[in-house]
Amino acid sequence: MSQEYSDSVDLVNAGTVAYLSGAVLIAALTAVLAQFSIDLPGGVPFSFQPFGVFFAGILLGPIWGGFSMLLYLLVGIAGAPVFSNGTAGVGIVLGPTGGFLISYVFAAAAIGLVAHRSLAPVSVDDLPAVGVTAGLVVGSAIIYAIGVPWFAEVQGWTLPRAAGFMAPFAVGDAIKIAITVGIVAGGNELLERP
Predict the structure, then answer these.
(1) Domain membership flag for residue 3
(2) pLDDT for the residue 88
(3) How confident is the model at residue 3 (pLDDT cuts 50, 70, 90)?
(4) pTM (2 decimals)?
(5) For residue 165, is it within any domain?
(6) Residue 42's domain spans which residues?
(7) How far is CA 120 from the centre of its chain?
(8) Which of 12, 16, 50, 115: disulfide with 135, CB 3.0–4.6 Å?
(9) Assigned domain for 4 exists
């Protein structure tokens, strides 16, 4: 009887458990990467958080990638010190960088959608470098499209002034995109070797 019972109690399939576990791991990775940041004048740190956003979309696809970043955001709002330099709380999300943090949810989903070309994720080794690159560019554009106006509003700046202030960050983000594409392409090449 116990064998019969255990066979019929599959409440969650293995794929869902795997993606949920992956979402938690990527959220945790993003929290760790956020601690590697450099405070710059103006209240915007240069951090490695975007790598977490990038890998959420690439590895988990649009739905689970977006969920991973939502989990990261909610954990930080709840008070866990997961944002840049160990910060946390609603005050950070309502502050100058809050728009960037909120944008991570949408950016990860967009990266996954563009790279995977569907709501269902495919194997990373099946993702073409062009699709991954396009996804990362779209995701980065979303981060800036939400983050810069938010930053301008909170700082009391005009949008052009905020955009000018954020322009140097785009160079660093372009380098992050190139590194991410290199990691994905290099990983795929290693998987193809006999």
Answers:
(1) no
(2) 97
(3) low
(4) 0.88
(5) yes
(6) 14-192
(7) 17
(8) 115
(9) no
Q: Are strands 46-47 and 37-38 parallel, antiparallel or unpaired?
A: antiparallel
Residue type (1 letter), 155: Q
Q: Name the domain count of the chain.
A: 1
Does the pLDDT at position 95 exceed 80? yes
Indicate if the pLDDT at residue 9 is higher than 60. no
Our CA dihedral for 13, 106, 174, 183, rounded to 10 degrees, sits at: 0
Q: How far apart are CA 29 and CA 19, in angstroms?
A: 15
- Pair of tokens at residue 168: 């140097």
SS3 labels along 31-90: HHHHCCEECCCCCCCEECHHHHHHHHHHHHHHHHHHHHHHHHHHHHHCCCCCEHHHECCH
Mean pLDDT, the chain, integer: 90
The residue among 95, 94, 129, 100 whose CA lies nearest residue 114 is: 129
Q: Give the CATH number, domain containing residue 171.
A: 1.10.1760.20
Q: What is the pLDDT of residues 145-177, one digit of tens each?
A: 999 999 999 999 999 999 999 998 898 899 999
Report yes or no on 2 lying in a domain.
no
Amino acid present at 172: G
Q: Could you tell me the two tokens for 193?
A: 């070797």
